[in-house]
Structures are given as structure tokens and as C-alpha cells.
Amino acid sequence: MSSQNTAKAIFEYNPNVKIFAILRQPVERAISHYLYDKYRHFSVPQNFEEAIEKRPFYMEQGLYYQHLKPYFELFPKENIKIFLFEDLKKDNKALLADVEHFLGLKTFYPESIEKRSNATGEPRLRFVNKILMHIRAFIHRNNLQAVLPILRKTGIVPLAEYIRDSLNAKKMDKQAIEADLREELKTYFREDVSNLEKLLEKDLSH
Questions:
Q1: What are the backbone dihedrals phi and psi of residue 19, each rounded to the nearest 5 degrees, phi first?
Q2: Vertex 161, ends 155 and 165: CA angle to 5°?
Q3: Beta-carbon neighbour count of residue 178 at 10 Å?
Q4: Distance between CA atoms of 139 and 158, rounded to whole angstroms?
Q5: What is the pLDDT of residues 39-64, one digit of tens each?
Q6: Which of 56, 103, 189, 198 has a Cα at 20 to 30 A from 124?
Q7: Helix-strand-coil percent breakdown of the chain, rounded to 5?
């Protein structure tokens, strides 16, 4: 969504496509993104404040108005649907039904709908995740993506994911963000949020 050329490329491919996005409160999104990277990778700064100074994309990806504006300029408004992460947490079935209705699909609830995914945790043994990450990088670097369906079907990929996300994961202590820093982050996003409210005609102050 953050790529400036993506909206145009999608429009040229299919100007009638339907587009939806789920937006999270931008400060919380930045923190969650950082913690996820901290769990998955090993060169991430251990301090969130240092991370956003060295890696601006943690903040920039939460500038939703900037990212969405090109889509609203190209596509009919009725072909774009924006949801909020808070609504997903409040009632995931209702949100899924809304998405399906928007896409013209029959209402369907998969068995896994109540299963939590992408929960941020901390590895018990970092070298295990490092090995799995290097294997994944090797596959992508050598254009071996064609073997992934085979690895998934034979259970190798699910096993690796289970080791990474369950056996080798423990609950991460979320970093406390100082009130002053949190206010600075809110100030950073304030203008973008205000413009987004006008674009979506929706109150985003909560």
C-alpha cells in the first residue's frame, strides 16, 4: 500500500477491482511492527525510540492518508472499503461478513477464525529462528519458491512454523513507551489522521 506506483499499476490492470484495507491506530501499529521485527530478526535495535530514529519506515507506514489518497483519486469510492483494527478485535465475524458482502461473496466463517495469528512472542533459542530465517532467505534468493507448495503439502513448512511460533516462542514483555514519546508520536501522525478523517468521512479520534 505504501508504494506510490502500486495504485496506478492496479488501476491499469483492472480499474474495476475492489480494494479494502484494515487500519490500526498508527502509534500502536508502529510499536507492534517493531516488536514483530524484534522477534523475527536480529539486527533490530533493542530500544523502540532508537529503532524509529534509525528506521523511519516504522512510522512512515502509518501515514495512511498518504498511502490511500492515490487509490481514492483513481478508483470509484464505492469500490474502496476501509475497516479499523479495533472493529476486527471487537467482532471478527462481523468484520469478515462485511468484507465478504463488499466483495460479493457468500458469508463463510473458516474454522480457524478464532485462532489468533501473528501473535508477537520472543524466541526461547534465537539461533533456531536464525536457522529458519536463513533457510527461507536461501529459498527466495535462489528463486526456489516453486518448492514451497511441496514443502507445505509434505508438512515441512507447517512443522517449521510450529517450531518457530509455538515450541520456540515465549510471551514477550512489551516495552513500556514513555508518555512523552507517545505524545510525540501522536503529534507526528496528527495531520495525516486529520486528513484521513476527511477522506473517509469518519471520526478517528478514539
A1: -125, 135
A2: 145
A3: 11
A4: 16
A5: 776 678 888 999 999 999 999 999 99
A6: 56
A7: 60, 10, 30
